[in-house]
Write a structure and sequence with these properties.
mainly alpha, 2 helices, elongated
Amino acid sequence: MTNPREHLLNLKNINLRRLQVLELQAAHFGANVPPHIVLEIEDIKEKISEIDMQLKAISGNLNSQTSSQKTSDNQIQINGNVSGSTIVIGNGNTTDSSLPRK
């Protein structure tokens, strides 16, 4: 059995193929495209959007699980004007001589 992400990707690919065929049919009809083709194109685009949202939710859940395992106690607070300054977040070794040293 496939995992949920693979299942959603398969559904998206199938719907994309159906959409491409219907768009070709609509192009052949031009201004006289039958309403059922127009409606089916709209429905498939909506399904693809829903699948994309589900994939994003799954991806977000995976990212939050991963990031929760890598949590850190670092906190940053910036007050005032920092334009022209270099701010390094993480373990970078860059310093900016315009910033006051402690």
